[in-house]
């Protein structure tokens, strides 16, 4: 039962934070004018993917907080959240494609490190980060391709 009491806090933090940053840094004319690779998905796909991933990130965070709040895994969870929330302002607001690529590569490394570290503490938390790792890898390839094309 403690998870059900804690999960709303993590959902508000992660989903609410992600939605707020997405709203404040929504892609605009600058992004639309960029050359994009052929594998760039349609814009409508990003919101449902990120909403789903943010819910999974919140579940993993709440579970880890209850099981190992002083662990390296939970520190990695917080670091990935900071990096995740930093990417959109750097890319969409500051128009800094190269630094955004650095952030997303650091995010990918942190997500993978989280999966490894949390595997020993809570396998479900590690497993729900697998789709996140796959999406961040794809987003990193997309960011890199956009950098090369522009």
From TrEMBL:
**Location in or out of the cell:** Membrane
Q: Does the record's keyword annotation contain Calcium?
A: no
Q: What Gene3D superfamilies does the entry give?
A: TspO/MBR protein
Biological process per Gene Ontology, one example term: tetrapyrrole metabolic process
Which keywords does UniProt give here? Membrane, Transmembrane, Transmembrane helix
The protein, known as:
TspO and MBR related proteins
- Family (UniProt): Belongs to the TspO/BZRP family.
């Amino acid at each position: 039962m403690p998870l059900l009491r804690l999960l709303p806090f993590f959902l508000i933090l992660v989903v609410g934070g992600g939605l707020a940053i997405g709203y404040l840094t929504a892609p605009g004319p600058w992004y639309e004018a960029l050359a994009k690779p052929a594998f760039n998905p349609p814009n409508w796909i990003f919101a449902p993917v990120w909403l789903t991933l943010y819910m999974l990130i919140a579940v993993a965070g709440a579970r880890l907080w209850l099981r190992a709040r002083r662990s390296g895994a939970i520190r990695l969870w917080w670091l990935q959240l900071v990096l995740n929330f930093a990417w959109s302002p750097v890319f969409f607001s500051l128009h800094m494609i190269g630094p955004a690529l650095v952030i997303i590569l650091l995010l990918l490394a942190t997500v993978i490190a989280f999966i490894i570290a949390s595997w020993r503490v809570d396998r479900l938390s590690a497993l729900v980060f697998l789709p996140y790792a796959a999406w961040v890898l794809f987003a990193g390839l997309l960011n890199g391709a956009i950098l090369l094309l522009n």
